[in-house]
Amino acid sequence: MKYLTKDCPMRCSHGARAAEHVACGAREARAGAGLPALGLVRTRGWLMVPVMAALALVGYGGCDSRLTGCPDPVPILQSGGDAPSGFVQCADGLVHRQTVETCLEPHVPGDCDEDFGGADCATDSDCSDSPHGACVKRTNGCFCEYGCATDADCGPQMCVCAGSRARCVPGSCSASSDCGDGLCALESGRDVCGAPVMQLACLNEGASCRTEADCAEEEDSVSCPEGDPAQVCRITAGGWSCGEAPHCGGPCG
Question: Does the predicted model carry a pTM greater than 0.90?
Answer without folding.
Answer: no
